[in-house]
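Worked Example 4.2. Read the sequence first, then its structure tokens.
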Amino acid sequence: MDEVSARKDAEREAAAFLKVEEAALGRRYEKELMNPKEGLALGSISSLVMPTDLRKVLGENLAFLLRHYKPSPMSGPQREFH
């Protein structure tokens, strides 16, 4: 086998190996990190809401925030930057 064909063979094998490894890493990433339970455990998200309950939960959370909102200088949505 000459050098050129050996190099092409090695590159082809390396590309196939990389493709398999990238797919395995992608599956591992999705399984371990891209799931809602992991987000809950890490504190990235506070709760899981089913799509059928989304409107109710959003309404409850907005009502809570509006009940507990106390305007003060330079805080909240009334801030103005000049």
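Now turn to a second chain, presented in exactly the same format:
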Amino acid sequence: MLVKLTQVRYFSHVSIILTCCCISIAFAASAAAAHFSLLDWIELSPNNPPPARSYLAMTYDPVSGKIIAFGGFDGTGYLNDTWSFDGTSWAQIATQSAPPARAAAQMTYDSVIQKVVLFGGYDGTNYLGDTWLWDGSTLQWTQATPNNHPPAATGPMLFPDPNGRADLFGGFDGQFYQLTMWQWNGSDWTQLFPPTVPFARASAAVATNTSTGQVVMFGGLADVNPNNTWTYDGTTWTLQSPAVQPLLVYAASAAFDPGLQGVVLFGGGSGGVDQNTTWLWDQIGATWTRLFPVQSPPAREGAGMTYDAALDRVILFGGQDNNGYFNDAWELVPALTPTPTPTPTPSPTATLTPTPTPSATPAPRVTPRPRPTPHPRPTPR
């Protein structure tokens, strides 16, 4: 894994966790699950896609009405280019200044100041603790100069607070996983002290249900078991006990889908094996439901994913697997329900011979696109 998240150490922790915490993954048999299963990941063919990369920062910017993606790692170096996506084409944005190259930074939209906030990451040598603001009206980056800021860290979790501000939790500082929580107030970071906080971790999947104001966080990498689901209501965190839960993953992608009224989780790494399963957090039932789309993107970790309000779609871009890096884009959409073919009534015959019921033909799956040319991952120190 990249960005000096100490791959060997991580994978050993994950292996221990998977061995010691045997959680059964069951399929939810409910009407809701049946409804949610009528989904499909559709690969898009946008113009001018960015070069392949993983561990990029990506979010939707309501001011410009486009998805904004920044940086990442392409197998040979760390990136600091900025791109926008309108559903049809990608466009690289030339900015007067930009955050230094990095991967595993995170960013989210602050609806109070109406800007995107970016924090943290790793540049191949240093863990980063700088804060940058993206203005969708000028299409420019500005470095903030806060008096206080979270510890420099890679893989922090950055997400909208129920009050509209940008919140940050955790990360890895090169020695320790963090469990402090901070909020951006427009000019400075303020440390929050909820009565209960999740166990320290980095690279967890996190997203905010903007309809209810509930934040959902799952998995990640940690010294203490991160195989759990936490929710945040703007005041405190609550450890959930879902009847069904995804396999423990790190660097998975998450986004809230208003149409599904839940947080969608896709992919991630698990003990060094990348996944391509899709899950939905059901806030009412307080459990995870596995979705079974007609087709799915190839397994990956470190992909960018966000809900695009202009397109009314969850969009997935990039990421990596053990063979290389991706620059494909996918959208999660309702699947077309085939029209049932009426069963013909057999003509009367002298002897009625029972006709065996034909087995259902599996829905065809789209052949995954060719993998990018493999590149070695950075050697962890």
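Notes for the reader: The first helix runs from residue 7 to 20. Confidence is low (pLDDT under 50) at residues 6-35, 341-381.
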